[in-house]
Amino acid sequence: MVGKASRIACIGAGYVGLATSLCLAGAGFDVTCADRDAAKVASLSAGRCTLGEAGMAGMLRDALDAGRLRFTVSNAEAIAGSGMAFICVWTPQGPDGKADLSSLFAVARDIGANMAGRMDVVVKSTVPAGTARKVREAIVRAAPDAVRAYGLEVLSCPEFLRESSAIRDTLHPSRVVIGCDDDGAALRLRETMEAMVAPGTPFVMTGPESAETLKYAANAFLSMKVAFINEVAGYCEAVGADVRDVSRGLGMDDRIGPKFLAAGPGFSGGCFPKDLAALLHEGRSLGVPLMILEATAESNMAQRRRLAGKVATALGDPAAPPGSSLRGRLIAILGLSFKQGTGDMRDSVSLYFARELCARGASLSLFDPEASQKVGEFLGELMPSIKVCPDEYGAAAGADAVVILTDWPRFAAMDLGRLGAVMGRRLIFDYRNVLSGAEAAAEGFEYHGVGV
Asked: What does the buried/exposed string (b/e) look like for 249-262 if buried means 16 or more CB atoms within 10 Å of the residue's CB?
């Protein structure tokens, strides 16, 4: 167990920052987590977890009770007296796809202004290759005397956690990647991480550029795998094959593996689209063709267009003027978060479907067990045409069609007889393949899955 003298700052209390802070505190470190969102800091300080991740609430209470975790809105307060600082701020996508690193460099300047001893800065945010070196340069510019007097190293340690399993993935990662040119700093971070993660966790020790590239490459490869199976799904529909059987057979090949082979409406969320766009931007800037990944991004958007178009074709009036082919149609969308187990709607496919269907004149009824309360934040401009419902049956009431966009288990368990009884037309677009097409047909539904 590491003593309380080992103080660590963690900047950012989102999925990565909060999971990192909780797990470090659970390993015995003295952690101060800073976030500029005062309401979030107040909630966390009072023991109210701001994320619905499994295990987080209990770990938060334990860490607060033990006095090993504090929250603040002040980066300076978190950095003061700390010998290691984890940067866990979000790096959103800019209009041209480039990663917006402004928050990251603002934190770097704060570190320079407040470091009072040797500092190891650990960049966990997803960033382009070369960013760790630029962070060091920013800190040196902000505090050249302090850097000379105390010493500074900036390391890359990208995260690979998945939303809805953030704690498990932090404590039991498939690997820990550490990128640093200084052996001493790399060893200090390795010892810190070894105190937190499960025994036997493999470590990849490399340079910062390789660590940063590894993170982008991992997300890009998984994005490509999703896009691939969705293209195969379209082929299956054309020839009468079942993509579920194809996926299962592919996954049995240990060179391929079964994960990320579930056909659906395409990859989405706050990571894959953003990180793929950033990598493509970097490739274009460097004059390095990334043709497979360019095709992956286009394929993913094509899948969204294809599946939304199927809904519009089934319900639309082909003779109607532009923007009114779905006028008078009520469509229920079940599932707003980008995947089950989270309320995160960032770049969810539901946003695309809602805007596309409303642009054709449809009215929408929406339900998600975790994300419904965020509709105003993400789809406020559509509010005259949409309504949020308390459950899936309320959303389906009077609807001309139901579109399933998130694979929540409760949607797979719906009473199809009850569902059909409240709908205006028994039409289902099951874009997560959570239902049995045969069972839906037996209840009188016209059923459309993906690749089936």
From this structure: ebbeeeeeeeebbb
Q: What backbone phi and psi angles, to 5 degrees, belong to 92?
A: -70, 165
Per-residue model confidence (pLDDT) at position 448: 98
Separation between Cα atoms, residue 289 and residue 405, nearest integer Å: 33
* pLDDT tens readout for residues 83-123: 999 999 999 999 999 999 999 999 999 999 999 999 999 99
- 5 is written with which tokens? 């003298």
Please tell me the distance from the alpha carbon of residue 33 to that of residue 48, in angstroms, as a whole number: 15
- Confirm whether 389 is a catalytic residue: no
- For the chain, which domains are there? 7-206 (3.40.50.720), 207-452 (3.40.50.720)
How do residues 240-258 score in pLDDT, each as one tens digit? 999 999 999 999 999 999 9
Among the listed residues 10, 180, 271, 358, the single catalytic one is 271
pTM above 0.90, yes or no: yes
Asked if residue 305 lies in contact with residue 357, where contact means CB atoms within 8 angstroms, the answer is: no
What distance in Å separates the CA atoms of residue 136 and residue 150, rounded to the nearest whole number? 14
